[in-house]
Amino acid sequence: MSSSPANGPNGLTGLLSGNLGAVVIAGAAGKDAEDITASDVTLVTLLVDASSSIHDRGLEDAVRDGQNGLVDALGDTRERESILMALWTFASEVRVVHSYVGIDDVTRLDKKSYTAYGGTCLYDTWCDALTANVAYAERLRSSGTPCKSIVVVVTDGDDCGSKRSAAECARISKIVLASEQFTLAFVGVGTSDFHATARSMGVPDGCVAVQAQATPSAIRQVFRMVSQSAIRASQGRIAPGPNAGFFSP
To answer: What is the separation, in whole angstroms, between the first and last Cα of the chain?
Structure first.
């Protein structure tokens, strides 16, 4: 049987050719398929900005609180057993806090695990996280576990320091969205033109949310909004793919 274009050498599997690098390999690790009891799985990948502007604006505690609240919300839903979450942070470097684990095992950001500093490697993080997600999802599917993916980035600034470009982000985004197994979402906090940034990275307009006020209360609200949308997506109330409306009512 021939593979579909979305999954062929120019599609998802094509992203996994060559040297993936240590970050992608770390991000593609996760719970073993034989340890997953759910009949199908939702993979939630959360990418959190940890650049110096977060620190300068006094937002670190709000980010920690917001992420903790998101984990609580996912843990309270009836879909909790079918959700696996990966957590990444990014500043001048990309950091995989952990790959895909059950909600009870998700790291809750605190002063030890989350300290903001340095630049904003947004593009590098996006490219690596999507590729890692594809690699882990393909592993699950090959073992007979269907899965869908939600990738959400939360940032307060434009890219600064990435080796990859917005065009490379867009190329990978187009491939994963064409598979209709992915929902990609972008949350911008502050006054940058985040709609333009997200569009340049290939994120659908209906999956972009901007909070102009870079305040602690706004950050907490952003994470509440992400958790509500992630739960709706895990329940199948948001269809994946290029026409998804992740933040639609």
So the answer is: 40
